[in-house]
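Support request, priority: normal
Reporter: lab tech (M.K.)
Component: structure prediction queue

Hi team, I submitted a job for Pyridine nucleotide-disulfide oxidoreductase domain-containing protein 2 from Dromas ardeola yesterday, and the status page still shows it as pending. I've pasted the exact input below so you can check whether something in the sequence is tripping the parser. The sequence length should be 356 residues. Please let me know if I need to resubmit or if it's stuck on your end.
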Amino acid sequence: LLGQILDQWFESEPLKATLATDAVIGAMASPHTPGSGYVLLHHVMGEMEGRRGAWGYVAGGMGALSQAIACAAAAQGAHIFIEKAVCHVLLGKDGRAQGVVLQDGTEVRSKLVLSNASPQITFLELTPQEELPKDFVQRIQQVDTRSPVTKINVAVDRLPSFLAAPNPRDGRPLPHHQCSIHLNCEGTHLLHQAFTEATHGHPSSRPMIELCIPSALDPGLAPQGCHVVSLFTQYTPSVLAGGRPWDEQARNTYADTVFDCIEAYAPGFKASVIGRDILTPPDLERIFGLPGGNIFHGGMSLDQLYFARPAPSYSGYRSPVPGLYLCGSGAHPGGGVMGAAGRNAAQVALKDFRQL
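Reply from support: The job had stalled in the queue. We restarted it manually and it finished. Here are the results:
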């Protein structure tokens, strides 16, 4: 249990709760859920520019990272097709993957196929089911993809001014504006309470909020004097109590709750908002192809990690279909902006390619 680990090392409850947020981020779990300690480890095991456990903003926004990868691939001769949806994986008579078929009917032939879509999309939607073992299909169907995350993107006409550290008159960003700001995290009991509400189908009345202001470091993201605020919030169930859908009213009601919480820490925040984009778990699934809205393509619980990710006997990136590989967050070691799954899968695919 994460709570036991934090109790051994720290005395300050706000510090323990702040660290605990990285143990439940993207997970339908509380700090008291068995195995939650691993999710914290997962978020601090990497490094950035030699600094262990560090995170950073991508200049130009997260899309700039995708563009950088695309440019590097194109420089090596890769051909990139954008806005070309894949209909299914193309298989030969011998059952090997031979490419993909696009929705417009175009066939793209290849000797190997690597998919960074989720295991659910890769194996349950894009791969002919008769080519997969029944127990494998059942395992993929049973992957826990519950997600508590609602992402809210906000445009504001001025920097939030927090009661704990008010803004200077010149409006320049302070150090805390350039970091990750955690709200409603004064105690781990608050996180557990927020989790409990969601398990009963109700969005948290006092949500866990991780607030970032990337424009404080990257002014090009917003007009002069304005800023973009990224809110990573939980807990919100995928399906509301009574089977109610996440309609526009439900979205706005929850967003208003989040904004009321921020207002208590930074009076004037609500008045500064000039636009907002609310993405509930169903929205994250529909727009980004995240199963259940899960940012990791599946829960990072101990039964879905290491040799069991995405399924026992298939953690080595190869799939039951020869020539088809899984290289996304649903593969070992799981989610996060680190590229480990892709790098590992590429090495396996290259080894097989040389033997063709």
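The chain has two domains: 2-56+148-288, 85-144+291-354. Residues 248-265 form the longest helix (18 residues). Let us know if anything else looks off. Ticket resolved.
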